[in-house]
Amino acid sequence: MHIVEGIAVQSTVRFMMEMQENGIKPYYRRFEELVACLNPKMVYLRPRDVANHSQEIGKLRGEEWRNKVSSYLAQTEYSTRHGLTGMGGMHQFWTDYAALCDGLLLETCIPTKTIAFVP
Fold this sequence. Notes:
Layout: H1 11-18, H2 24-35, E1 42-47, H3 50-61, H4 63-74, H5 77-82, H6 86-106, E2 112-117
Parallel strand pairs: 1-2
């Protein structure tokens, strides 16, 4: 068994979202095609309340991390277009990203088990 953590939707989909690149769905479809021969299964760990989860992670990682991440995200094309700034903007960014991932996985051909959790 091979476990490939986060590869399906984590960094590439998020970077494409940040830069407003078209082609997220075609990218994901191509990913599905490439891994189909491996007979993959997916486990999707999904917080029930993304904004609350983001806040909890921020508390655990500390103020320096929160400031660094919120500053970085505020400078992305996505956040600029949507007026996302500060901690609230960071939490909304993660909420929007989760919604994007939810949509991709609703349509996936890879058998997926979603585990919703409360932080």
